Amino acid sequence: MENWTEVPEFILLGLTNDHIQQHILFTVFLLLYQSCLLGNGAILVVTFVEPRLHSPMYFFLGHLSFLDICCSTVIVPKMLTGFITEQQTISFIGCLTQMHFFHFLGSSEGMLLGVMAFDRYVAICNPLRYIIIMNKWTCVTLAGAIWATGFFHALMHTVVTSQLWFCGPNLIQHFFCDIKPLLMLACSSTVLNLTLLNVVTSGIALTSFFLTLLSYLYIVTFLLFKSGSWQNRWKAFSTCACHLTVVALLYIPVIFNYILSSAAESAEREMSMTLLYSVFTPVLNPLIYTLRNQEVKSALRKILCRKAPSRGT
């Protein structure tokens, strides 16, 4: 029975079966997806075009925006299709592909937030050594390590899941092919899959989470006892607050879904938590990083003002 699959496709049950709610949700999530593309796309453009933003902080911010765009694209278009079709089916290969890229991008984003927290720690607590520590080679190496670790972490789950035997039923209690709802349909043993999920995935998530909190703990302690004006301290606190908001929006639902959840937990609650970090967080990230960031806002105004005369001519 190994390496053999009787189920050729799965059916995603989605968020609701009510047709009126499906049409409403289609409009809502379409607007959210467009907002995600517009907001994160604007950050990508401005961090690439504006020379003043060619610094480690905005280098990693550009990676975060790219990850948000990709993560939403993996989930939302398929979910939108399900709202306007009677039955949302996905092939076995398509299901594994969606699962792979979701965990690839999600784990990469979690590690990236940890690196961004370390970047802020060096910038605030060791400003004189910041350029030396966070040089171009360091930033590129960290980014490459994040993408590579995320890819092989997801590949591990994809390969192990592909070896399972699915004999039916093929109804996935979710709006996309997440690993836990998929494992519930397996007819063969999932001990190895759950062990890897509990050990490797939880290890990556918790390590990144605690390193992020540790970095900000050092930052807050340093700011409370350092000499300097309260204006500069408040500016640093404001930046850290933005980053911690992003961390909370991502990590809290992830921890509840993959670490603290139980088998008896309802599918509706799990889907609600997943929506928070897979759909809403990518929309909120550009707002969180730009509303209080004068450099990004001035760079956006500069780009828009530069394009306005060219349209007039």
UniProtKB/TrEMBL annotation:
InterPro entries: GPCR_Rhodpsn, GPCR_Rhodpsn_7TM, Olfact_rcpt, Olfactory_GPCR. Belongs to the G-protein coupled receptor 1 family. Its main location: membrane. The keyword Protease does not apply. Residues 39-289 form the G-protein coupled receptors family 1 profile domain. It is a multi-pass membrane protein. PROSITE patterns: G_PROTEIN_RECEP_F1_1, G_PROTEIN_RECEP_F1_2. It is found in: Cell membrane. GO terms for cellular component: plasma membrane. The chain crosses the membrane at residues 20-46, 58-80, 100-118, 130-156, 204-225, 237-259, 271-291. CDD domains: 7tmA_OR12D-like. One of its GO terms (molecular function) is G protein-coupled receptor activity. It comes from Pantherophis guttatus (Corn snake). It comes from the Eukaryota. This is Olfactory receptor.
